[in-house]
Amino acid sequence: MANVTFETRRGELKTYFDKTAADKWVALTSNSPVSRIRETVRAGREEMRNTLLDWLPEDLTGQRLLDAGCGTGMLSVEAARRGADVVAIDISPALIEEAESRKPEDLGKGSITYMAGDMSADELGCFDYVVAMDSFIHYPLPSIVSLLEGLAPRTKKSILFTFAPSTPMLRAMKTAGKFFPKNDRSPAIEPVAESKLAAAIAKSHVDHFGFRTKRSRKVSTAFYKSSAMELVNK
Q1: Which domain holds residue 118?
Q2: How many structural domains comprise the chain?
Q3: Most exposed: 42, 126, 129, 186, by fewest CB within 10 Å?
Q4: Domain membership flag for residue 1
Q5: pLDDT at 187 over 80
Q6: Dist. CA 114–CA 95, nearest whole Å
Q7: How distant, in Å, are the alpha carbons of 11, 25, 28, 178, 185 from that of 181?
Q8: Does residue 32 lie within any of the structural domains?
Q9: Do residues 87 and 66 make contact, with C-beta atoms less than 8 angstroms apart?
């Protein structure tokens, strides 16, 4: 298990997405031409986003939803169009600025409040639904469980999140990344075995707050590997 604290990794992510990779991330989440490798990542992210949206009700009118690690806000917009009052937060002020610029003028009954900051902050309040798409993938298993334990008592209905599955390819990529110069490294992806994650959740306060695993799904394209898990309140 990686020996990295939540605070350390959060700082690395802020630096990476706000200074090093903001332009690349903006391009990836737009219709701009990208490399074939990034095309597979874009396709995988779209499939994952649609999966998480499929797990949410079609009608979210009056429901409060946290988009934890919202990036440029693509999922936030779709949730708001279903009527949700979305709090969209990301560690990167640059990505929040981009998300604000992309927000449609007409969201129907829904709304979006964008903010830069810590997705785990208690000050964000309580929610009906929490969605964390590809924002947990950089954290080791203990940090993921800790994040879920912090969100569970403030979530009424379900928590949808993704994690990096423990596959030979992802483990090899993580090892190879250690040999790049520090300035060229992105924050490490932390592969997590689903069985170990499920067992850790069952032993944690997440389970004590009444949440159980309802379903999971793996999305795999050539260069995008991510697994989704849905926790529902009993």
Answers
A1: 6-233
A2: 1
A3: 126
A4: no
A5: no
A6: 10
A7: 18, 21, 24, 8, 7
A8: yes
A9: yes
14-26: pLDDT as tens digits: 888 877 778 888 8
pLDDT for res 171 = 52
Handedness of CA 143, 144, 147, 153 (dihedral sign): negative
Strands (E), the chain: 64-68, 85-90, 111-116, 127-132, 155-163, 211-221, 224-233
Which CA distances in Å does 12 have to 183, 186, 224?
11, 8, 21
Q: Report residue 178 as tokens.
A: 């250690």
What's the CATH code of the domain at 180?
Answer: 3.40.50.150
d(CA 60, CA 79): 7
CB 125 within 8 A of CB 191: no
| Element holding 72 (H helix, E strand) | none
The answer to whether 84 and 64 are in contact (CB under 8 A) is yes
**Separation of alpha carbons 94 and 61, rounded Å:** 29
At 167, the pLDDT band (50, 70, 90 cuts) reads low
**Per-residue pLDDT averaged across 49-74, rounded?**
98
Longest CA–CA separation in the chain, Å: 50
Which distant-in-sequence residues (6+ apart) come within 8 Å of 97 by Cβ? none
On whether residue 82 sits in a domain, the answer given is yes
- The Cα–Cα gap between 169 and 148 comes to 26
pLDDT digits (tens, 9 = 90+) for 122-160: 999 999 999 999 999 999 999 999 999 999 999 999 999
Instruction: Kindly state whether residue 68 falls inside one of the protein's structural domains.
Output: yes
